[in-house]
Design a protein that fits this description.
With 261 residues, the protein is of the alpha+beta class. Helices cover 45% and strands 18% of the residues. It has a six-stranded antiparallel beta sheet, sandwiched between helices. Strands 1-2 form a two-stranded antiparallel sheet.
Length: 261
């Protein structure tokens, strides 16, 4: 089968068949027999047999000892993680974060969920003379912080409920569950969160979600926007928010995320 696109004149039938097998098995989590694969791929048992045996030998397919069905092994997932920036969120985010602080002239930090709280796992400081930033390793409240609101809003419902319970137990505060759900819906619609800092006067927190290849939220990228009063600020909060949005999208893309269903 000849593929269109760049260098379409080159063909590697065995390689193409191997990838067809992998794509087929993604839709058959219970595995498939060689004979079933041959029928579904409209190929002979002989040509599929050779491909499958080699892929099994290399460790990319696993044969069930119970019913001889083949399924994709975890070696493929391990290879994907080791060959892409997805293995290290910080490595994937560093370049975009450094560009962000230069463009926005503000500091930024990356927050992940850590046992009912948020944890700052990376930060880049404003290269200018003034700025505000959180320290690396700082813990943030999921219920009151801008980053926490984004992480909770874009988490699956069951995980969010569990995290809210954990965060409530940690903070000891009483929450209005109905009001909280309304806030999450609002964040989901906007695609980000913006709020005045609950702690620092003159700071407005901006936060966007970062998604992984599995389309799940993995982190929140946040700018604690420090407003100067002497007129020397060259980048206003609206422009900084656009830079932040683009940086979050770039990191998500680096992690293999696609917003196309």
């Amino acid at each position: 089968m000849m593929r269109t696109g760049p260098k379409a004149s080159y063909a590697a039938p065995a390689v193409e068949k191997a990838f067809e097998v992998l794509e087929l098995l993604t839709n058959h989590p219970g595995g498939a027999l060689i004979s079933e694969m041959a029928v579904l791929m409209n190929r002979s048992i002989g040509e599929i047999f050779r491909i499958v045996i080699v892929m099994e030998k290399l460790g990319y397919l696993h044969k069930s000892p119970r019913d001889d069905r083949y399924s994709v092994s975890y070696k493929l997932l391990d290879l994907a993680f080791r060959a892409t920036p997805a293995q290290d969120l910080v490595a994937a985010a560093t370049s975009a974060m450094r560009k962000l602080v230069i463009d926005a002239e503000q500091s930024c930090h990356l927050v992940v969920i850590n046992e009912g709280a948020g944890l700052v796992i990376a930060r880049e400081q404003n290269p200018g003379t003034r700025g505000f930033s959180l320290r690396l390793g700082a813990e943030v409240d999921l219920l009151t912080s801008c980053s926490g609101a984004v992480l909770l809003a874009f988490s699956p419902d069951d995980l969010r409920d569990s995290l809210v319970k954990q965060a409530t137990a940690l903070s000891g505060c009483v929450i209005d569950q109905e009001e909280l759900e309304k806030r999450f819906i609002s964040i989901q619609k906007r695609g980000h969160e913006q709020r005045k800092s609950f702690i620092t006067r003159g700071v407005t927190d901006l936060s966007y979600p970062i998604f992984g290849f599995d389309r799940k939220v993995v982190a929140a990228l946040t700018i604690p926007f420090l407003e100067l009063i002497n007129g020397s600020q060259r980048v206003d909060i609206g422009v900084a928010k656009q830079y932040l949005r683009d940086a979050a999208a770039d990191i998500s893309n680096m992690l293999g995320y696609s917003d196309v269903s």
